[in-house]
Amino acid sequence: MKTYLAKKETVQPKWYLMDAEGKVLGRLAVKAANILRGRHKPTYTPHVDTGDYVVVINASKIVLTGKKEEATEYMSFSGYVGGEKYRKLTDVRRQKPEFIVTRAVKGMLPKNRLARTMLTKLRVFPGATHTHEAQNPVKL
Question: Strand pairing of 73-77 and 122-124?
Fold first, then answer.
């Protein structure tokens, strides 16, 4: 019996829609990361991008458990001495709520060039409307 290895040219990506309203951030991010990688398919190949597109709506209504809402901080570094900046999750949720979901999914993907291309297939929207109705995403 031969082992099947998927080719980049033969992959037919699909579109999926996830509603984040009332969902726990980590659990939603795991499902999104697995779909982006293609782990849900029998043709999954680790070194080939066999994943699908994921559209996440209602990112501003995501839920965090415990004291993570007050304790979580996001750090950014400008590259200069003393250039560290820390932002609280509550401030990020107010200004750019889609960053929270994108950052969580990015952390669950491998750290390589392939994962950076996989992350481009993630589309996050803060509200209930999205711009991908033409792709007919399947609701999860």
Answer: unpaired
User: CATH number, domain at 43?
Assistant: 3.90.1180.10
| Closest C-alpha among 45, 16, 41 to residue 105 | 16
Residue-wise pLDDT tens digits, 87-119: 999 999 999 999 999 999 999 999 999 999 999
Please report whether residue 25 resides in a domain. yes
Provide the residue range defining the domain that includes 110: 14-65+96-139
Q: Are strands 84-88 and 73-77 parallel, antiparallel or unpaired?
A: antiparallel
Helix then strand then coil, % of the chain, to nearest 5: 35, 20, 45
For the ranges 41-45, 53-57, 81-85, the lowest mean pLDDT is seen at 41-45
Q: For the residues 12-34, what does the mean pLDDT come to? A: 96
* Number of structural domains found in the chain: 1
